[in-house]
Amino acid sequence: MSQIGSFTRSNDGTYTGTIKTLAIDAKARLVPSDPASTSEKAPDLRVIVSGVEIGAAWRRTSKDRTYHSVKLDDPSFTAPIYANLFEGDNGELALIWSR
Fold it and tell me: Which InterPro entries match (predicted)?
């Protein structure tokens, strides 16, 4: 597992941080989706980089914690990137990627 990003959460539910890999070094925001959406499959958050939506995140719950399952995609990617956003002990959130 590799950490490819770190974020902090604002009081309005927006997450702000960076995503860094060998090919990506971008400031990103995860913003709450439109609450008017009635679809069960609609994401909870939208991933925005430079004003462009490049992904989405869905709230998940495991036995012992709540996290966000994140899918990042862009025409420059050969395939989507899947990661999970977990809150650490210090309140910072880590975006963890694994193959």
Answer: DUF736
